[in-house]
Write the structure tokens for this entry.
Amino acid sequence: MTGLSTRVTTAILTVIVAATVTATIGAAGPAWSVPSIQQVAPASLTPQPAPQTLTVTGRQFARGLRLLIRTPGGGTLDLHGDAIQAQTDTAFQVTVALTEAGRYSLVVTNPDGGASDPFVLELQARGKPPAPVITRVSPDDLHRDPLPQQLKLEGLGFVTGAQVSVTGPTGEMVPDVSVSRVTTTSIEFRVLLNMAGTYEVAVILPSGVASNVAVFDVH
């Protein structure tokens, strides 16, 4: 009886230990990591042909992770290795060209197979600024001169870097127009007016948007 009792006791202990181990493993949850993307900066992004640096913040970012970016056109950008910069457990940076407007989906995958939920990034195309408007050209009384003269345009929507285009009475562009001062409502420039007749002038913003065409006479 003693041998039988010992075997029964051993069997019971084995079952208890096995159940305990199973319960412990089950309570520990999955063996893989669960990364999460919580924010991508800068928050306001526009499509650009040049690469942009993104800072991705979240949690459980493991060394050797991959960042998969699904583009609006259905393509996939796979960033890993040296493309992942300044990494910590909660943040990293990538430099990538986001050339399309629309919704981008970002997923982080750790080396152990743990993957984040998709993080959606919306890029909106930047609209062109409104066209500038020329309302006046001064001085009012201009005469032809072999030396460049100072003129002033008044209006709205002028920005730093704007250029002035002048067309002479023959329909040809006047060269060497020199802009000296720009405010939002005025532009001062020097131009050679060595021919009598009607001239046309326009303002071109750095974005390529052009103003209306104003005319002035040279006597």
